[in-house]
Amino acid sequence: MSKTDHAPIHRAGSPRGFSLIELLVTIGIIVTLALVGTGIQGTMAEKAASAQDVAAGRTLISAYQAYAAENSGQLLVGYQKGAQPVTLPDGSQISGEAASRYVWRLAPYFDYSINGVLYSKARVRAQKESEDAGMKGYGESISVAYGINAYYVGGFVENGETSIPSGDVATSLLQVDKPSSLLVFATARSSQGSGHYLVKAPRFVPRAAGTGALSQPDWPQNGSAESTGNVDFRNGDKAMCVFLDGSIRSYKVAELTDMRLWSKNAARDDNPNYAPVLEGGSGGRGNR
């Protein structure tokens, strides 16, 4: 018998184990694909959340403009203590603090589709807050995707008076020279999480007459909700902002300290450091 007759025969399909190197390469590929998949999912989730914010912003500003058109150019008061109850299509009413906040008074202008303007992750919490408060619509009035710039647009009214001098508050379309520069809504959060009905400009407390301009405050990049006026920079470190002309733009923390985006008078004077002045020359409070 020849040597050839004793050669081992390798049949196709015979089982053969993986080498250590092959196993490590395979594991590496699987891990890489998993990381890529996670990154893609994260990006898709961020884009979906951003799209929801854009849709909510468009709904709110369209309703806000519709209210003004129906009321001879008057702008909806952002917060009105003791506002009249809002009657829903089913005959029930929203009253008390829930009706004081802008969203339910604006609701008739977007067909009461309240879920479309709530921050998506806060909807369950909103319902629980309503149940805990024993007040219909209470939680929903807080957990809006956007807070309103009520101190400078429409007004923040308690006991019949606004919190800043009346001349600083835009209450009518005719008072606004640059609608594209006047911020009405911004993505918002509270200390409990995302979604809030009110945002505050860097300066909403007036200074005393005759005093010098206040220095521009710095909003911390990762500060608390109150440290940035409840504005939520949740879209790639930017806040989604909706302006009176219907435009939607995004701004970083430092960019939103410019008072020309918040106040009609600041835009008129082209003064990024604008601060309201107390009427009557009475003593003022420090900026906060």
Tally the beta strands: 11
Query: What is the CA–CA distance across the termini?
Result: 101 Å
Compute the number of structural domains: 1
Query: Spans of 5+ residues with little confidence (pLDDT < 50)?
Result: 281-288
Shape: globular
Helix content: 25-40%
Task: Kindly name the structural category.
Answer: alpha+beta
Proportion of strand residues: 5-15%
Order of SSEs: HEEEHHHHEEEEEEEEH
Tell me, rounded to a whole number, the average pLDDT: 83
Strand order, largest beta sheet: 4-7-10-11
Largest sheet: 4 strands, antiparallel
Radius of gyration: 28 Å
Tally the helices: 6
Supply the key terms:
288 residues, alpha+beta, 11% strand, globular, disordered C terminus
Topology, element by element:
Blueprint: H1 20-70, E1 79-80, E2 86-87, E3 93-94, H2 97-100, H3 102-106, H4 123-133, H5 138-142, E4 146-148, E5 156-158, E6 161-162, E7 183-187, E8 189-190, E9 193-194, E10 239-243, E11 248-251, H6 264-269
Parallel strand pairs: 1-5
Antiparallel strand pairs: 2-3, 4-7, 5-6, 7-10, 8-9, 10-11
Would you kindly provide a brief summary of this structure?
The protein is of the alpha+beta class and 288 residues long. The chain has 6 helices and 11 strands. This is Prepilin-type N-terminal cleavage/methylation domain-containing protein.
Could you describe the 3D structure shown?
By secondary structure, the chain is of the alpha+beta class. It has one domain. It is built from six helices and eleven strands. The strands form four sheets. Strands 4-7-10-11 form a four-stranded antiparallel sheet, with helices on one face. The chain has a three-stranded mixed sheet with strand order 1-5-6, with no helix packed on it. A two-stranded antiparallel ribbon has the order 2-3. Strand 5 and strand 6 (161-162) form a beta hairpin. The N and C termini lie far apart (101 Å). Residues 218-230 have a biased composition (Polar residues). InterPro entries: N_methyl_site, Pilin-like. The chain crosses the membrane at residues 20-40.
